[in-house]
Write a structure and sequence with these properties.
alpha/beta; Rossmann fold; seven-stranded mixed beta sheet; two-stranded antiparallel sheet; 5 helices; 9 strands; 16S rRNA (guanine(1207)-N(2))-methyltransferase activity; methyltransferase; RsmC/RlmG; 23S rRNA (guanine(1835)-N(2))-methyltransferase activity; Small_mtfrase_dom
Length: about 200
């Protein structure tokens, strides 16, 4: 069976490396490896998402499908009073995410799960998601529903998706689940959606 970045236990031979990430006036060295998403560097969708997200200073954020942790690593520095939960189904990615966010200490915790655990209900101010497109539309839409459950009232889901990967249908699905949805970024086929839970 071929490994994917959403494989629970990747069998790909380890080949650890360090990459440079520079975004939001933050420069970091992050550890990556075979068997994780975008191992060679920060992917363009995540970069555009990071450039658009704004958070309350004391945000409690779920980094959903965190991979090796670039979103938390960057935004945890931009917002030094924020707290984070990182979730991914990929054990190897989650190990790397823990290493890449270790500087934040108790501000971060990691959970290995295929989606948001059901006991997390109305706890987060924000959920940030670059969805696992290759896992299929049903999985992506389930993550939307998970995010709605886990957000506080007034909480927000940030999603990046390309037009060729189904941005219009994803927007319609978000409208079915959230009180308000807006497109906060649209360029070169990339969209960043902001969905708010108000009722």
């Amino acid at each position: 069976m071929t490994d994917h970045y959403y494989t629970h236990s990747p069998q790909a031979k380890r080949d650890p490396r360090v990459i440079q990430v520079a975004v939001r006036d933050i420069e970091l060295q992050l550890q990556t490896d075979n068997g994780v998403f975008s191992k060679a560097g920060l992917d363009e969708a995540t970069r555009r998402l990071l450039e658009q997200v704004w958070l309350p200073s004391d945000a409690f954020v779920l980094d959903l499908g965190c991979g090796y942790g670039p979103v938390t690593a960057v935004l945890g520095k931009v917002y030094p009073d924020s707290r984070w939960v990182l979730v991914d189904v990929n054990e190897r990615a989650l190990e790397l995410a823990a290493l890449n966010t270790a500087m934040f200490g108790e501000r971060c915790q990691t959970i290995c799960s295929d989606g948001i655990p059901p006991d997390l209900v109305e706890v987060f101010t924000d959920v940030i998601l670059n969805p696992p497109i290759r896992a299929g539309k049903a999985v992506v839409y389930r993550l939307f529903e998970d995010a709605h459950r886990a957000l506080q009232m007034g909480g927000r889901l940030w999603v990046v998706i390309q037009k060729k990967h189904g941005a219009p249908s994803a927007y319609a699905e978000l409208e079915n689940r959230f009180s308000e949805v807006e497109t906060v970024y649209r360029k070169s086929g990339y969209f960043v959606f902001l969905a708010k839970k108000l009722t």
